[in-house]
Design a protein that fits this description.
Number of domains: 2
Helix content: 10-25%
Strand order of the largest sheet: 18-19-20-1-21
Low-confidence stretches: 1-13, 48-54, 330-364, 373-377, 457-463
Shape: elongated
Structural class: alpha+beta
Number of helices: 5
Strand content: 25-35%
Order of helices and strands: HEEEEEEEEEEEEEEEEEEEEHEHHH
Radius of gyration: 36 Å
């Protein structure tokens, strides 16, 4: 009986077969290593995105003081601001009560009035204290109708729930009201002249839902509730393209003030920065409202209250280099009048004229203004707990693609090596079979069996 040096039931492989197995095992070890690297990269990306979100829409914003009120004539607070062709208009809520009238003020937007006469820019053009505007939490201007629309937020007058007031931008008086919703109030409002649609945000009863309205104030789309994080409510907002700029209400929480960028298409907050108004000196600060000022910047109204309850409002110009802004639509005065006439004729029932029209002169209140002489630049900070999802997702995709390519290339090399080993194994098997047939001494059955088992060629051994 010929001895082949090893018993058939022994499990030890030959050196050649062990080398092949080592190469195959190395491939799987490399795959596990690459997978581990990928996981680490993903975790690092996520944590890095949480810690810092560079290049966000609000990153690198520049703020400067335009002007400020020296003191309020009452103990009220300016709640909203909007910009027309000629004026910057504000509403000061004196009290959430139907028994008190609120104060509407128009400041000159330009260094000349509508007739071209020179005026001091940002000085008071008109002040009217004759009507109650509820809380007056938000407002917007429609150049096509030449009207200002005010979101009330409160309904001290019960029938005002879900109602928008209409203001004449020239007289600063109420023209009528529009009923939009029946089950909640409207917190904020803005108008998109390019799409001819309005954007509103509901009060907490509807979860601060963002809705899109057509030109007749009919609901086109309800985007659903929005989280107030990191605050507990919202101020007024401003829509620019796909982005809503707004301030979560954080007054009293001791965490500072924030501005968020909410994406309409993604239906989520995509960026957030923390604001610092320490230079104002007052302990109680509240960014109330934001509106588009021109083609490159926004105006922001910030209330500052001192320990003795003395109040003033500081108006900032804020520019966001990373936020795309569309050019304002230009139209002639004739086109504006035609558009206003068309809208009023198409929807006469939408505008409810008050029963008692104003027949006497509106009472005025003096407001003193200080113009911002030296521009003040503020560098907002990114809150550490908010990630920039776009950057994180992009880095994750790049990391996954790189890891996948590395694994694929390693797989290709390993497969090429395996094919070469298969060719060599088949040759050795053929040589071993020939040796056995010739009964030659150099026949190595162990090597023959190992290669056969490795490459599923067991059936060939019996041939």
């Amino acid at each position: 009986m010929r001895s082949f040096g090893k018993k058939k039931n022994e499990k030890k492989n030959s050196p050649a077969c062990t080398a092949v197995l080592r190469k195959r095992g190395g491939f799987f070890r490399a795959g596990r290593f690459a997978a581990a690297v990928l996981v680490v990269m993903l975790l690092v990306t996520l944590f890095a995105g949480e810690a810092k979100a560079d290049g966000g829409l609000l990153e690198g914003s520049v703020w400067e003081v335009l002007f400020q009120t020296d003191a309020y004539p009452t103990k009220g607070l300016i709640q909203s601001v909007c910009v027309t062709d000629d004026y910057i208009v504000t509403i000061e809520n004196t009290a959430d009560s139907a028994d008190y009238v609120d104060i509407v003020t128009a400041y000159y937007k330009n260094d000349h009035d509508r007739n071209g006469n020179p005026v001091e820019q940002y000085s008071v053009a008109n002040t009217v204290a004759a009507e109650e505007w509820e809380h007056g939490n938000g407002m917007c201007y429609n150049p096509n109708t030449n009207e200002i629309y005010v979101s009330l937020y409160t309904n001290t007058i019960p029938e005002n729930i879900g109602t928008i007031y209409v203001m004449d931008p020239d007289t600063l008086t109420r023209k009528g009201s529009i009923k939009v919703l029946d089950d909640c109030n409207i917190l904020a409002i803005d108008y998109n002249p390019r799409e001819d649609v309005y954007y509103i945000q509901t009060s907490g009863e509807r979860g601060y839902s963002v809705m899109i309205l057509d030109s007749n104030f009919q609901v086109l789309q309800d985007l659903g509730p929005e989280s107030t994080d990191p605050g507990y409510n919202f101020q007024d907002f401003c829509v620019e393209g796909d982005i809503i700029l707004q301030f979560p209400l954080t007054l009293g929480l001791g965490i500072g003030e924030f501005m968020t960028a909410f994406s309409l298409s993604q239906n989520t907050v995509v960026d957030m920065i923390q604001l610092h108004f320490d230079e104002l000196g007052e302990p109680y600060l509240e960014p109330e409202s934001v509106a588009r000022l021109d083609d490159s910047s926004f105006i922001v109204a910030v209330n500052a209250t001192a320990e003795d309850n003395t109040r003033r409002c500081v108006f900032y110009r804020a520019a966001f280099p990373n936020l795309p802004m569309t050019a304002a639509a230009e139209e002639t005065a004739e086109e504006s009048v035609q558009a206003e006439t068309a809208v009023q004729s198409e929807s006469p029932a939408a505008l409810n004229t008050p029963e008692n029209s104003l027949t006497e002169q509106s009472e005025s209140a003096e407001v003193s203004v200080t113009k911002g002489s030296t521009p003040l630049t503020i560098t907002p900070e990114k809150p550490e707990k908010r990630s920039h999802r776009t950057v994180a997702v992009l880095l994750i995709i790049l990391a996954a693609a790189a890891a996948g390519m590395a694994l694929y290339l390693r797989y290709v090399r390993a497969e090429r090596a395996r094919r070469q080993e298969r060719i060599r194994a088949r040759r050795r098997i053929a040589m071993a079979k020939q040796s056995r047939e010739n009964d030659e001494d150099e026949f190595d059955e162990m090597l023959y069996r190992d290669f056969a088992n490795l490459y599923d060629l067991e059936s060939r051994i019996e041939e």
